[in-house]
């Protein structure tokens, strides 16, 4: 078993908790002394960093939300002077002011090591050729992975997004052995590889996928299409970027690096859930210098897993992301996650994995959900009865899982736009009651 930083990856639990407490105290002091936002929060709660005496005392500390980053735009939450910031990244700002995150030189080193740790964990090394097919720029996915690839010593192919045929040509010409992209773009790449008839000319053995929820069925489809092992990556810019948690070769949950983060999985009442239960991921950074963050409510829903893993790593583990608290759709009082719908669709024959969800409100002011899904090429028999049968199967399976009726609109393959980034799946056209 290979490790990038064995000291931290296999640290005994009591030693790890001792390290976490030491770093939590340091982080609490840093934000209290250098970030007015946190000083005000501490003062309002009647606490100081000296009140952090055990790891359980994290519950005394204030929560942080995405709106707090927007309210302090652009640099209000930075804990170091601006001349120590060597890079910034930012969100798109499509739902308001962007969230801006900063990095010191040490932060960049920490991030690169964390990524190299992830890559080593899934069996990559300096001999690999790694194609990074995501956006570069203010989005953290591009440079976050890129620096980790170089830190590992592997050959980086910074292909970015788009020009799918050229992407596949590069994979052939450069002998690419590993690729990183969103799962939705991975499916589109696989579709194009099949159309080009070059599957047997690829050298791929590993795929890293993240930035959007994806199902076990999608994993199997990607693995079968490319003859690879497909691994889940989790991250968010507020905590550094991609790679704060990653699957190991067991492919049974993600290791979230406990020497860098404290993870809480909280229920709707803010209480820690039991092992195996699901809740919202709340993260506290322990090693970030430029933008340390306390108890950040990620909005991501996951289950807490046992930390023991056959790979030998002792970090906390979480399930794959089940959805987002703020992506949760409430339809006639029922909570629906897009990932639930995807899980149903990928198991049904004669349809593809391309779908869209439309939410409307009828004349009776009742919510209606319509799932638009592409038919497989083999499904076009020309018989209306055959299409009606497929529609009945899809509607029946959706109702059994969602507990509400969903309308199904079957469309020809290729109708739904493909995405090189995060696929837009949900279109909420409801007006307020």
From TrEMBL:
Keywords: Ligase, Nucleotide-binding, Phosphopantetheine, Phosphoprotein
CDD domains per record: PaaK
GO terms of molecular function: nucleotide binding; phenylacetate-CoA ligase activity
Residues annotated as domain AMP-dependent synthetase/ligase: 79-283
Domain of life, per lineage: Archaea
Coiled-coil stretches: none
Pathway: Aromatic compound metabolism
Domain AMP-dependent ligase C-terminal: start-end pairs: 333-430
PANTHER family per the UniProt record, alphabetical: ENZYME, PUTATIVE (JCVI)-RELATED, PHENYLACETATE-COENZYME A LIGASE
Subunit-level organization: Monomer.
Protein name as catalogued: Phenylacetate-coenzyme A ligase
Organism: Methanococcoides methylutens MM1
Taxonomic classification: Archaea, Methanobacteriati, Methanobacteriota, Stenosarchaea group, Methanomicrobia
């Amino acid at each position: 078993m290979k490790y990038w930083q064995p000291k931290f990856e296999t640290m005994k639990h009591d030693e790890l908790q001792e390290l976490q407490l030491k770093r939590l105290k340091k982080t609490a002091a840093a934000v209290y002394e250098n970030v007015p936002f946190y000083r005000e929060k501490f003062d309002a709660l009647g606490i100081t960093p000296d009140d952090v005496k055990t790891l359980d005392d994290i519950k005394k500390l204030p929560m942080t939300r995405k709106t707090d980053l927007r309210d302090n735009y652009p640099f209000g939450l930075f804990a170091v002077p601006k001349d120590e910031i060597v890079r910034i990244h930012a969100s798109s700002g499509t739902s308001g002011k962007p969230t801006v995150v900063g990095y010191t030189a040490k932060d960049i080193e920490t991030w690169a090591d964390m990524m190299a740790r992830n890559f080593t964990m899934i069996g990559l090394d300096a001999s690999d050729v790694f194609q990074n097919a995501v956006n570069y720029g203010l989005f953290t996915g591009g440079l976050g992975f890129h620096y980790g690839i170089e830190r590992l010593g592997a050959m980086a192919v910074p292909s970015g997004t788009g020009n799918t045929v050229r992407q596949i040509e590069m994979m052939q010409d450069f002998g690419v052995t590993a690729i990183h992209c969103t799962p939705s773009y991975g499916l589109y790449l696989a579709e194009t590889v099949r159309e080009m008839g070059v599957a047997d000319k690829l050298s791929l053995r590993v795929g890293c996928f993240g930035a959007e929820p994806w199902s076990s069925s999608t994993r199997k489809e990607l693995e079968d299409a490319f003859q690879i092992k497909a691994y889940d990556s989790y991250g968010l810019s507020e905590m550094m970027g991609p790679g704060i948690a990653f699957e190991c070769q067991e492919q049974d949950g993600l290791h979230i690096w406990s020497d860098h983060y404290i993870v809480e999985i909280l229920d709707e009442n803010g209480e820690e859930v039991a092992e195996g239960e699901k809740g919202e991921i709340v993260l506290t950074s322990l090693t970030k210098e430029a933008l340390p963050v306390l108890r950040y409510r990620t909005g991501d829903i996951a289950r807490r897993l046992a930390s023991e893993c056959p790979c030998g790593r002792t970090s906390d583990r979480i399930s794959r992301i089940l959805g987002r608290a703020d992506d949760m759709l409430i339809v006639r009082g029922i909570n629906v996650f897009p990932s639930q719908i995807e899980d149903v669709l990928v198991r049904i024959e004669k349809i593809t994995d391309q779908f869209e969800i439309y939410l409307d409100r009828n004349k009776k002011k009742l919510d209606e959900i319509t799932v638009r899904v592409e038919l497989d090429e083999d499904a076009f028999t020309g018989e209306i009865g055959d299409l009606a049968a497929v529609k009945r199967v899809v509607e029946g399976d959706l109702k059994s899982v969602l507990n509400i009726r969903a309308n199904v609109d079957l469309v020809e393959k290729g109708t739904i736009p493909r995405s090189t980034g995060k696929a837009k799946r949900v279109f909420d056209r409801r007006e307020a009651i």
